[in-house]
Amino acid sequence: MQEKTIKQYLSTHVPSAVRWEGFKAVMFDMDGVLYDSMPHHAIAWQESMKRFDINMTADDAYATEGARGVDTIRMMVRKQKGKEITEEEAQHMYDVKTDIFHHMEQAPVFDGVLTLMEKIHKAGLSVNVVTGSGQRPLIKRLLSDFGRYLDEDHITTAYDVKRGKPNPDPYLAGLRKAGNLKPWEGIVIENAPLGVKAGVAAGCFTIAVNSGPLPDEQLINAGANILYSKISQVADDFDSMMKICAELVHLKQK
Q1: What pLDDT, in 10s, does the model give residues 63-80?
Q2: For 174, 225, 243, 247, which has the most beta carbons within 10 A of its beta carbon?
Q3: How far is the C-alpha of 169 from the C-alpha of 162, rounded, in Å?
Q4: Burial track 85-106 (b if 16+ CB lie within 10 A, e otherwise)
Q5: What is the spatial distance between Cα 170 and Cα 251, in angstroms, rounded to a whole number?
Q6: Is 166 within 8 Å of 3 (Cβ atoms)?
Q7: Is the pLDDT of residue 140 over 60?
Q8: C-alpha angle 80/160/226, rounded to 5°?
Q9: Which backbone phi and psi does 200 adopt, to 5 degrees?
Q10: Cα-flanking dihedrals φ and ψ of residue 66, to 5°?
Q11: Least confident of 56-65, 121-130, 165-174
């Protein structure tokens, strides 16, 4: 299944004149992929938006996951209030949400994340994070938890792009930070439809991990190349995936 999926991806994404040399970077989304944090985010969204007379449900929080916070807020205000607000006004509202979130219990790292990062590191690929968040405490935690594999130069946040997910911009920025890579040299790991759409739009091989309550179909319909239910399953399969890639590189070089 993996070999067929990878071959199909390469046949449609790598130009015929290009000699594919394998994947060179893995780009992780943060919330719902590295950390089991989405339940906390859903609560923070609901409580903060209530203060501004905006009705935001847990389903809304999951459906808009991955987008820049200010974009989500402007969309909700437009939808419910019928008016446009500035990015600065939305940022003020987002700051309230951020404050609530950071006063909650710290979300745990998903089982399998560190194992997967170690395998990525041993395979010679870089570890990167591409997130719609941008709060400094979250960046500090990423470096604290994953500093053996990740540095700040390989973290892309909401403040690095003007257009967030589902636009390709965040992952295109991630590819630049990973070494000005081509889309077919990057693997995206996402858990949300908007994030999957962004990875696909950027042209990367996109793995979906359904760590939340959304139906699998939403991630498949968003364009995911492979779907898992746990990040630990990605870790279990990663070595075999890299073996397949190495064999495909060898064949193309003949």
Answers
A1: 888 888 899 999 999 999
A2: 174
A3: 8
A4: beeeebeebbebbbebbeeeee
A5: 32
A6: no
A7: yes
A8: 80
A9: -65, -45
A10: 100, -25
A11: 56-65
183 pLDDT tier (thresholds 50, 70, 90): very high
Q: What is the 3-class SS of the chain, one letter each residue? A: CHHHHHHHHHHHHCCCCCCCCCCCEEEECCECCCECCHHHHHHHHHHHHHCCCCCCCHHHHHHCCCCCHHHHHHHHHHHHHCCCCCHHHHHHHHHHHHHHHHCCCCCCECCCHHHHHHHHHHCCCEEEEECCCCCHHHHHHHHHHHCCCCCHHHEECHHHCCCCCCCCHHHHHHHHHCCCCCHHHEEEEECCHHHHHHHHHHCCEEEEECCCCCCHHHHHHCCCCEEECCHHHHHHHHHHHHHHHHHHHHHHHC
Q: Check the CA dihedral 4-31-113-120 and report its sign.
A: positive
The tokens describing 126, both together, are 């870089």
List residues bridging with 205 in a β-sheet.
187
